[in-house]
Design brief:
The complex is a heterodimer of chains A (118) and B (506).
Chain A lengths: L23 E7 L9 E5 L5 H13 L14 E4 L2 E3 L16 E6 L11
Parallel strand pairs in A: 1-5
Antiparallel strand pairs in A: 1-2, 3-4, 3-5
Chain B lengths: L11 H8 L12 H4 L24 H24 L11 H29 L3 H29 L8 H7 L3 H12 L3 H30 L3 H31 L3 H19 L1 H10 L7 H20 L10 H7 L3 H11 L13 H10 L4 H17 L23 E2 L2 E5 L2 E5 L2 E5 L2 H9 L1 H4 L5 H4 L9 H7 L15 H14 L3
Antiparallel strand pairs in B: 1-2, 3-4
Helix pairs in contact in B: 3-5, 3-9, 4-5, 4-6, 4-7, 4-8, 5-9, 8-9, 8-10, 8-12, 11-14
Classes of the chains: A alpha+beta (118), B mainly alpha (506).
Chain lengths: 118, 506
């Protein structure tokens, strides 16, 4: 449904990828690890290899969780836009099909130090 | 010869007619449509503006008199508060975090409400609502001013008060309240009235002002209590106006019902999200707590709101669509916010802290179904990190909701262990939401919300381009003074030293 307006109403999105100086936004979150209050916002060049996103900013950001050291990144289950998905660690974000503002989620079954006892 | 007879004083009824309804006129050299161009496009049909009932029958001359009297009392007490070091009567300087959030986010919202009511007072063709809206416009600017004056006393002694206007424009958490008012002010006049006059001032205001003013009283903040008393009679009038508006619109034409219902659905959810910050204030930030957010919701949401919507059922109005989702989040929202405010406290112009053991006991008693299960383990871990000398800071910044602009801290309505992920694609561009409610609001008017100025993505664009230090300068945040953990703050140190001077011989 369009905006109710007195005349035709069109607008430009504020967060277009060309505003980010050659970089893009990627959201990443660790399912059921809510020590981190919200999904992380990362801003990276699309040429960044996926493995670098994981080894660099993502590994660093999850450090405060007591499960962080036990993550086996080769066994992690990934979701992209809430759908199961398998990344290529050597390929770039772009080659992995990770678009501007895409949300990545990862799951580590069995790791749940701060989760409630079932 | 005619005798000149002394004119009788006007009776109340006559005075009301002369000083409100008689002020209007039928245009003769412009069409009504040209004079009031914005009153038709939203689809609301009004057949007779004279059916507007003004429950207060307040006229401008009486209005000025009452307000002037309240101002005199207010400023006398504010002066006394300043001269007697009233700030040292606070329970604890932690309380000031709630005040800082109020000054940075809510006082500017009062000003926004002033602008909104001034506008709709001009845009409605009926004299009754014109006068009522103009009075409310003046009330709102008075509230903004008196709040700023009341809190300016604290600015002489404490950090975080000095740049509320810059922070209103630029810092991240204030964009929640700002975008809420921008959304209402860029809507048509009828939607504005349902958004602010009814949903905010009538349905939700008790959840904001009652806890806030009682919180001030419980915590020794005479300045804010005084403001509360000064605003109280205005708020009563605003609530009555909000209720009168909705009844008037619904009685005018049956076609108005679906439009009004959609606005109520939207603005209840928008308002509920804005008030989320109040939940954190009530449960965590008041050193001496009034009641829990859950208890406030039971009284002002479930009981009062339930009675209201029962009353409106005769017009065909149903409770807001996302009422149940709101109810499910009550046991979780304050905890989810406070965890966020603590880990991002490097970027807030107020302090956050780890709840003490006493605080945690209170929280588990008030939230028996959620605190110990979900939130205590996280706080205990955070406490351990602080004790080890490596306090928890989350530099990942946060994904924000495109609609409410809050960080996506909320969990699935039926699973408090899983973040609620919602997204949609509009014109090949991706957008994220914190909840189904916010996604629905976006999808009804996507062209409006794609323009949202989201502070986190903006941090990586001009003029800051991802530099955190530059960002702090840009938002007028003094690193090491305004931000961070209360435990190591200048505010704590100063408050304790000054209070020590006032109450001991050391």
């Amino acid at each position: 449904m369009p905006v109710v307006a007195i005349k035709e109403y069109t607008a430009t999105p504020r967060d277009r990828v060309e505003n980010f100086n050659g970089k893009q936004i990627v959201y990443a979150s660790w399912d059921r690890h809510l020590l981190f209050a919200a999904p992380f916002l990362l801003c990276l060049p699309p040429e960044t290899p996926f493995g670098e996103l994981v080894k660099g900013p993502l590994s660093m950001l999850v450090q405060p969780d007591p499960d962080a050291a036990a993550i086996d990144w080769t066994a992690v289950e990934w979701l992209k836009s809430n759908q199961p998905w398998t990344p290529d660690f050597n390929a770039s974000l772009a080659a992995n099909g990770i678009g501007h503002k895409d949300q990545l989620r990862f799951r580590t079954p069995g790791l749940n130090s701060l989760a409630p006892a079932a | 010869m005619d005798m000149k007879v002394a004119k009788k004083k006007l009776g109340l009824k006559e005075k009301y007619r002369t000083m409100t309804r008689d002020l209007g006129w039928e245009p003769s050299y412009h069409s009504k449509e040209a004079l009031f161009p914005y009153v038709g496009y939203e689809g609301i049909k009004i057949h007779d503006w004279d059916k507007w009932e003004d429950p207060f029958r307040l006229t401008m001359d009486a209005y000025w008199k009452y307000q002037a009297e309240k101002e005199r009392k207010f400023y006398a007490i504010i002066d006394a508060h300043a001269q007697n070091n009233g700030h040292l009567n606070l329970t604890d300087a932690r309380y000031l975090s709630a005040l800082k959030i109020f000054l940075q986010a809510i006082s500017p919202a009062e000003y926004a409400a002033h602008r909104g009511f001034a506008r709709v007072g001009r845009e409605f063709p009926g004299v009754g609502p014109q006068v009522a809206c103009q009075m409310q416009a003046i009330d709102e600017i008075r509230h903004a001013q008196t709040q700023i004056h009341a809190m300016s006393n604290y600015n002489r002694y404490y950090n975080g008060f000095h740049a509320f206007a810059d922070q209103r424009d630029r810092i991240w958490y204030t964009s929640v309240a700002r975008s809420f008012f921008d959304d209402s002010m860029s809507a048509g006049p009828f939607e504005f009235m349902i958004a602010i006059g009814f949903s905010f001032e009538y349905v939700l205001t008790n959840l904001l002002f009652v806890p806030f003013m009682s919180g001030a009283a419980y915590n020794g903040d005479m300045a804010t209590v005084t403001f509360g008393f000064s605003a109280q009679s205005d708020e009563a009038r605003h609530m009555t106006l909000g209720l009168e508006v909705i009844k008037f619109i619904l009685e005018q034409d049956p076609d108005n019902l679906p439009i009004v219902q959609a606005w109520i659905d939207k603005w209840f959810w928008r308002g509920f999200r804005v008030l989320g910050l109040v939940s954190t204030m009530m449960d965590y930030m008041l050193p001496k707590r009034v009641m829990s957010w859950r208890e406030a919701w039971e009284i002002y949401g479930v009981e009062n709101g339930g009675a209201l919507f029962k009353d409106l059922a005769r017009y065909g109005i149903k409770p807001p669509k996302d009422w149940d989702a709101a109810a499910k989040s009550i046991d979780h929202m304050s905890h989810q916010f406070m965890l966020g405010l603590y880990q991002w406290s490097f970027g807030t112009a107020f302090h956050a802290w780890i709840p003490s053991d006493d605080d945690m006991r209170w929280l588990s008693a008030k939230y028996p179904d959620s605190f110990d299960t979900y939130y205590r383990p996280r706080w205990e871990h955070i406490k351990k990190m602080a004790a080890a000398g490596t306090p928890f800071k989350n530099y990942g910044l946060a994904k924000l909701c495109q609609t409410c602009q809050l960080p996506c801290v909320f969990t699935e309505p039926d699973d408090p262990t899983l973040t609620c992920h919602r997204e949609t694609v509009y014109k090949e561009h991706k957008y994220h939401f914190c909840s189904d409610g916010c996604q629905h609001v976006f999808e009804n008017e996507p062209e409006k919300y794609i323009q949202a100025w989201l502070p986190m993505p903006q941090l990586f664009q001009d003029p800051v381009n991802g530099d955190l230090g530059e960002w702090m300068k840009w938002v007028s945040l003094l690193d090491g003074k305004d931000n961070g953990d209360y435990a190591s703050s200048e505010d704590k140190q100063n408050f304790e030293a000054w209070r020590g001077l006032a109450t001991t011989n050391q």
